[in-house]
């Protein structure tokens, strides 16, 4: 008996929630309030919508001009784009654009204690 045959009937099985990410309750009012506060207190904020994974639901990352960022779950890409439009900030699909270098630089400075 081969190793792969020991896995039983799972070879074609698909994990529940894999395409949409896990289902979770999102306090939309709290999310919007946090994101509004971030936008109002920083300059040059842009939004990046991240797709759901097998571990997380769809999220939105707001990144300020200096690279400071925050992430919150939004439930769907459509909701992420709608929230960004409501906030009046540019919004991008991270699968299309990637993350800006300033975000990585800001995170690196924080890890090194420079920020």
TrEMBL record:
Residues 17-26 have a biased composition (Basic and acidic residues). Residues 1-26 are annotated as: Disordered. It comes from Terrabacter lapilli. The lineage of its organism: Bacteria, Bacillati, Actinomycetota, Actinomycetes, Micrococcales. It comes from the Bacteria. This is Oxidoreductase. Residues 7-16 have a biased composition (Basic residues).
